[in-house]
Amino acid sequence: MASNHYEDILYQEQNATATITVNRPDKLNAYRTRTYDEVIDALHTAGFNKSIASIVLTGAGDRAFGVGGDTSEKKSERKGGRGVVGVSVELLQSAIREVPKPVIAKVRGYAIGGGNVIATICDLTIAARSAVFGQVGPTMGSVDPGFGTAYLARIVGEKRAREIWYLCKRYTADEACAMGLVNKVVDDELLDEEVDSWCAQLAQRSPTAIAIAKRSFNADSENIKGIGALGYQALALFYGTDESKEGVNARREKRPPRFYEVDSVEEKA
């Protein structure tokens, strides 16, 4: 897929850095089927280009890094998707990990749901102070059953990872940094400059040494890919259940999901 054929992303190479920008700000940079495939293609283009030292993954505008999958995309539009659940989620995650270059998540605004998972998987994450991190999956009948859970636990610890997924709270950039989810937080107007500085430093490092280091880091957690493969097969079945559909419907109708029958309790005087 040639870069001039991209519709959902912007791709730029400059000063030994490739920048991939998801260009769907009106959708909070949510990924549709085409978006996944274009980002994967761009990652492979940059990742195996010997003149590139690092890759920056970001979202257009200042409202969102990304909020996961585009829930407005119809199932019929996902027929071309290569992933188990209809879109190439696991293939995108693998691409981030497998390209022999550091991938930096440059986060402005919301990094929620699948966007939060992507920021987690990237080698490094640099955030603007206004960035917001968190999960939504269990509120709408979904979950990331691989790197988004097991790998997250390696980064922030079991207790915090379970809190993130079970409660679906929002965390500021400073809170995310304190738990180890983010490498550095800077004021919004300094984010581009800070990321450029990190990329300039990476361009002065041995590409072979960096590639070996990345492979070594990944080898220790590669078993999560197998866990995720099983999990996504289960998730594909789960998406067909009434429970999962209730979560999606509740989100579209902007109401609390009704996963349980809860009796109303009258307060006694």
How is the secondary structure organized here?
Layout: E1 9-14, E2 17-22, H1 33-47, E3 54-59, E4 64-66, H2 89-98, E5 103-107, E6 110-112, H3 114-121, E7 124-128, E8 132-134, H4 147-156, H5 158-167, E9 170-172, H6 173-178, E10 184-186, H7 191-202, H8 207-221, H9 223-238, H10 242-253
Parallel strand pairs: 2-3, 3-5, 4-6, 5-7, 6-8, 7-10
Antiparallel strand pairs: 1-2, 8-9
Helix pairs in contact: 1-2, 3-4, 4-5
Give structural notes:
The chain has one domain: 2-enoyl-CoA Hydratase, Chain A, domain 1, CATH 3.90.226.10. 42% of the residues lie in helices and 16% in strands. It has ten helices and ten strands. β2, α1 and β3 (54-59) form a beta-alpha-beta unit. α1 (33-47) runs parallel beside α2. The protein is globular, with a radius of gyration of 19 Å.
CATH class: Alpha Beta
CATH-assigned homologous superfamily? 2-enoyl-CoA Hydratase, Chain A, domain 1
Distance between the termini: 69 Å
Q: How would a textbook summarize the main sheet?
A: 6 strands, mixed
Approximate strand percentage:
15-25%
Radius of gyration (Å): 19 Å
Q: Ranges with pLDDT <50 over ≥5 residues?
A: none
The total count of helices amounts to: 10
Strand order of the largest sheet: 1-2-3-5-7-10
The count of β-strands is 10
List the secondary-structure elements in sequence, H or E. Answer: EEHEEHEEHEEHHEHEHHHH
The percent range for helix content is 40-55%
Structural class: alpha/beta
Total number of domains: 1
CATH architecture: Alpha-Beta Complex
Shape: globular
Average pLDDT score? 93
> Can you tell me the CATH topology?
2-enoyl-CoA Hydratase, Chain A, domain 1
GO cellular component, one term: cytosol
Pfam families: ECH_1
Protein name: Short chain enoyl-CoA hydratase
InterPro entries: ClpP/crotonase-like_dom_sf (IPR029045), Enoyl-CoA_hyd/isom_CS (IPR018376), Enoyl-CoA_hydra/iso (IPR001753), Enoyl-CoA_hydra_C (IPR014748)
